[in-house]
């Protein structure tokens, strides 16, 4: 966390330095321009243009609401667009009219020989340039603040949540994960649950953990694994034995990001054991997600805007906020409960989850057999409302459906 905060602070500092230099240059440029304008055109023209802008701004600010109120009563226009349009129209109208009046006045003064002094014009330009330069610096400072807040927002948010959580934030995260999510996962890893290890890793180095999860989410082999209909069907059936024979799976399981996560989840095991256990977990989760898709509550959660935002970019979410999100916890609970309630889990003759001993990971062709004929089928179809349904019984009155399984 310290390294991330220092990195963001350095970036903000470098941007601040560059912005200050640019604002100084802009200020000098604006002042120089108006001094040159006053020297060449005279004091009357410089002050006339400046006063026209001030008058236009004042009228736009003062009469904007009156014009908006009249438009709302006379037309159906409403909202921020109406306010911006009314303000812009007032500003431009008054600016053109004021410039016209000052132009006529300046011509009358020039005929009398007033306002032709170049030195006075340059001094007036200096005054006007300082005013406009100050406005430019002020607007630049606002932009600089927005950029700084955008870059430092993630660090500040995490620091505030840590402050609210108290001094024992590491113990809080570890306890939260091990006592909460472990309850839904312990049936799959009863002897050596991976959740406390992940909790400890998150507590020790949340930045590194988040980067590992980002690398996994950007994992191209993982997308290929789910993008291939054959491997996706094997995942949905939980057919780990045949899944491990595919090229897509081999590229995924041997990807550095996958191996790092498997090593953290199953610390103390050999590489082959880590990969085998990781595959079992992936198969069970995929199987549970397949069985639960017809559940109305699951569909409601998947359509929830907050859940969709998190699932579309899970790495952007703060780890602590993600783990404490009740909707995400409920989603995990539904998936894991579906996997546990699979009626074929307790039937050894039809059990599709197979623990595989892997003495040599490169010899996967010899590790598994084809699915037995007794394995069940899963029917998948989409109703008229676009909702996906899964069933172990053939749907009645539905012609367009897909079948996976033996």
Radius of gyration: 34 Å
Number of strands: 3
Backbone shape: elongated
Tell me the strand percentage band.
Answer: under 5%
Tell me what you see in this structure.
The protein is mainly α. It has 2 domains: 2-164, no CATH class; 166-372, no CATH class. 71% of the residues lie in helices and 3% in strands. It is built from 17 helices and 3 strands. It has helices at residues 2-41, 43-74, 80-111, 118-165, 169-185, 195-204, 206-217, 220-227, 229-237, 240-243, 247-253, 256-265, 271-292, 296-303, 305-312, 319-323, 326-340, and strands at residues 377-382, 388-391, 402-405. Strands 2-1-3 form a 3-stranded antiparallel beta sheet, covered by helices on one side. α1 (2-41) packs across α2, α2 packs antiparallel against α3 and α8 runs antiparallel to α11 (247-253).
Q: Short summary of the structure?
A:
The protein has about 400 residues and is mainly α. It contains 17 helices and three strands.
Structural features:
single chain; 406 residues; mainly alpha; 2 domains; three-stranded antiparallel sheet; 17 helices; elongated; disordered N terminus
Per-chain topology:
Layout (H helix, E strand, L loop, with lengths): L1 H40 L1 H32 L5 H32 L6 H48 L3 H17 L9 H10 L1 H12 L2 H8 L1 H9 L2 H4 L3 H7 L2 H10 L5 H22 L3 H8 L1 H8 L6 H5 L2 H15 L36 E6 L5 E4 L10 E4 L1
Antiparallel strand pairs: 1-2, 1-3
């Amino acid at each position: 966390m310290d390294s991330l905060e220092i990195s963001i602070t350095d970036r903000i500092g470098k941007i601040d330095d560059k912005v200050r230099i640019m604002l100084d240059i802009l200020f000098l440029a604006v002042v120089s321009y108006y001094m040159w304008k006053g020297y060449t055109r005279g004091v009357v023209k410089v002050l006339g243009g400046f006063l026209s802008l001030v008058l236009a701004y004042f009228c736009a600010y003062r009469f904007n609401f009156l014009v908006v109120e009249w438009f709302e009563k006379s037309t159906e226009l409403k909202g921020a667009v109406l306010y911006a349009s009314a303000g812009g129209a007032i500003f431009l109208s008054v600016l053109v009219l004021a410039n016209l009046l000052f132009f006529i006045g300046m011509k009358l003064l020039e005929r009398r020989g007033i306002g032709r002094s170049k030195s006075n014009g340059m001094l007036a330009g200096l005054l006007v340039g300082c005013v406009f330069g100050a406005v430019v610096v002020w607007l630049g400072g606002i932009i600089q603040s927005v950029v700084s807040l955008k870059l430092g927002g993630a660090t500040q948010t995490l620091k505030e949540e840590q402050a609210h959580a108290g001094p024992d934030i590491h113990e809080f995260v570890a306890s939260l994960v091990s006592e909460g999510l472990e309850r839904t996962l312990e049936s799959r890893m009863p002897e050596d649950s991976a959740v406390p290890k992940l909790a400890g890793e998150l507590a020790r180095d949340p930045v590194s953990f988040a980067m590992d999860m980002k690398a996994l989410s950007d994992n191209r082999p993982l997308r290929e694994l789910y993008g291939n209909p054959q491997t996706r069907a094997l995942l949905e059936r939980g057919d780990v034995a045949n899944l491990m024979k595919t090229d897509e799976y081999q590229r995924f399981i041997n990807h550095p990001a996958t191996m790092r996560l498997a090593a953290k989840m199953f610390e103390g095991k050999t590489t082959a054991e880590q990969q085998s256990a990781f595959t079992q977990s992936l198969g069970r989760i995929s199987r549970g997600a397949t069985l639960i898709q017809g559940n109305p509550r699951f569909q409601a959660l998947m359509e929830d805007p907050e859940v969709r935002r998190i699932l579309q970019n899970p790495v952007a979410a703060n780890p602590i906020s993600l783990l404490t999100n009740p909707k995400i916890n409920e989603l995990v609970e539904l998936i894991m409960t579906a996997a546990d309630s699979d009626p074929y889990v307790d039937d050894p003759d039809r059990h599709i989850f197979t623990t595989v001993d892997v003495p040599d990971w490169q010899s996967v062709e010899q590790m598994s057999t084809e699915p037995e004929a007794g394995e069940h089928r899963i029917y998948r179809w989409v109703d008229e409302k676009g909702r996906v349904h899964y069933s172990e019984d053939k749907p009645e009155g539905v012609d367009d459906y897909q079948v996976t399984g033996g």
